[in-house]
Amino acid sequence: MSISFSGAIKRPGGITSLIVKQLRRVNLMPVNKIDIRFDPFDRQSKQTRDFLFYISAPKIRATNPQCSLKTDVCDRSEPIITFNLQSGEKVVLKTALLTSLNILQLYNKHITSLIPPDPAELEAKQALLEERKKKKTRPHHKQKLYKKHRGVYHLL
């Protein structure tokens, strides 16, 4: 006798799926320049190098082709990522003790959130909300008085 299988067929991807989820949200529109400084022989700079790899992907670079990416390889310096925003502000991340997932989460929290929402998306959300309101305000069918329902008589 065999036991039938029930449940998920595949396991969640773990840290990789979380990184991919954050990478889908990354948008370089509010950034003019990204400066990345790290010591290539330092153990703490691995996550910064991973972030450099992620951010230099063609799909992410296509979100803002005017954004320049500068890599500075230094000796004995802690890994630092500096974002120069179009508004003239600078955001500095000291990434010595951060993972690449933490760096992406901080980027999405502080920089990607600066992008104004797309008007087409706003219109679609408003239309969806109006559709839901119509469904809620639509009169439902009323039961007749003393209607037999599952063997019990109900009064409305």
From TrEMBL:
It comes from the Eukaryota. The keyword Ribosomal protein applies. Transmembrane segments: none annotated. InterPro entries: mtLSU_mL53, Ribosomal_mL53. Keywords: Mitochondrion, Ribonucleoprotein, Ribosomal protein, Transit peptide. GO terms for cellular component: mitochondrial large ribosomal subunit. The keyword Phosphoprotein does not apply. It is found in: Mitochondrion. Belongs to the mitochondrion-specific ribosomal protein mL53 family. This is Large ribosomal subunit protein mL53. It comes from Cyphomyrmex costatus. The lineage of its organism: Eukaryota, Metazoa, Ecdysozoa, Arthropoda, Hexapoda.
